[in-house]
Amino acid sequence: MLATTIAGSLPKPAWLAEPETLWAPWRVAPESLAEAQRDAVLVALQDQETAGIDVVTDGEQSRQHFVHGFLERLEGIDFAKRVTNGIRADRYKAEVPTVTGPVARRAPVHLEEVRWARAHTDRRLKFTIPGPMTIVDTLADEHYRDRPRLAFAFARVINEEARELAAAGLDVLQLDEPAFNVYMDDVAAWGIEALHRATEGLTCTTAVHICYGYGIKANVDWKKTLGAEWRQYERTFPLLAASRIDQVSLECANSHVPLELLELLRGKDVMAGVIDVATHDVETPEDVAARIRQVMRHVEPARLLPCTNCGMVPLPREVARAKLRALGTGARLVRADLAQRSPDRRAVVRAAGEAEASLREPPGEGAPMANKK
Ligand code: ZN
Predict the structure, then answer these.
(1) Centre of ligand 1 from the C-alpha of residue 351, in Å
(2) pLDDT at residue 177, rounded to an integer
């Protein structure tokens, strides 16, 4: 109950890539890069385990950007042919590669990364891949010249990849679709269908992450234009509730999303963002617990996974670590509270002891690996 997880990314160590930067350049020579990335994944896993995160990710340590990291190894996309496009309905400019031919996957893209992470954690493992609509929105296209057609081409490629990742022991495949909060008509017209094609036949849990973007200036400015109540989810949640996707990751912390909209997801697991990634202010465990309790008015605890609003890659590393600890400890506080009301006294004692211990000694630098499953 109340299993914790993160949206996906964590900051990279300064020895691996330039800190606090999106699309950060690598700082390691090409011949040593893969090894350095694997080392960074070990640290990311340990940070999550120590903080008490239940469903962990590789922190996206091996990719420069959450979209282009997947595209780099596909055929049909010319990275030398870069164009500056206004993406997310022109919210910000990005240098994007161009689709110049049929999109195809000749070899696995992230399989080695999933195998590496799988071999180094006993926790449930989640891996993120950009969703078809968000990919289409982060590219220039000279070949398909039709967004749904291009999205379905990517859905096929994602599905090939996802089946191999699931076979390698992945527990949760998450498709990142921030574009779902921008093109709501397209979500109904072809976005859900693209998700279905991307996840068809998968044996693992499937998830979609829909957010209001990283805590960067362009997004913060955009949010100011969205008014007192953000109701984008009101259009997409009923479609997702009727879909075959198992879990939905969404933004709640410090946002203007009316929490009653979460009731539109009845029947799905809800990964509710209770950690704000747009501020360096670190939540206290009590803040997190209070947010979880607010969400619990609309989502039953068995269906609720406390999570971050979005990826933490642009944050300073120490801030992200502290936020992870607040997330883990805050969820334990609520679990202890729920256990106290349960008739099973052993569960009460166990949960209360855990929460107390983690409050007394928040694991810091050099702390031993805690609570391996
Ligand atoms: Zn996000």
Answers:
(1) 31
(2) 96
Predicted confidence at residue 368, as pLDDT, reads 41
- Whole-structure pTM value: 0.90
Sheet holding 304-308, edge to edge: 55-56, 124-130, 172-176, 205-210, 247-251, 269-275, 304-308
Domain 30-360 adopts which CATH fold?
TIM Barrel (3.20.20)
Q: Which one, of 6, 107, 93, lies nearest residue 49 by Cα?
A: 6
Q: Of the candidates 317, 254, 248, 332, which has an alpha carbon nearest to the alpha carbon of residue 286?
A: 332
At residue 82, the pLDDT reads 93
For residue 232, the SS3 value is helix
CA torsion, points 44, 46, 48, 53, in degrees to nearest 10? 150
Rounded distance from Cα 250 to ligand 1 centre (Å): 8
Annotated domain spans of the chain? 30-360
**Per-residue burial over 79-98, b = 16 or more CB atoms within 10 Å of its CB, e = otherwise:** eeeeeebebbeeeeebebbb
Query: Cα of 350 to ligand 1 centre, how many Å?
Result: 34
Contacts of 366 (CB under 8 A, 6+ apart): none
pLDDT at 65: 86
Q: How far is the CA of 131 from the centre of ligand 1 (A)?
A: 12
Output the CA 210–ligand 1 centroid distance in Å: 6
The DSSP secondary-structure symbol of 5 reads B
Query: Ligand 1 centroid vs 9 CA: distance in angstroms?
Result: 9
Q: What pLDDT is attached to residue 19? A: 94
Q: Quick one: which of 239, 214, 218, 235 has its CA closest to 311?
A: 214
pLDDT score for 361: 52
Q: What is the pLDDT of residues 107-153, one digit of tens each?
A: 999 999 999 999 999 999 999 999 999 999 999 999 999 999 999 99
Ligand 1 center–CA 340 separation, angstroms: 34
Comparing CA positions, the residue from 73, 102, 3, 86 lying closest to residue 304 is 3
Within the chain, which residues score under 50 in pLDDT? 362-373
The neighbourhood of ligand 1, an ion, using CB within 5 A, equals 211, 310
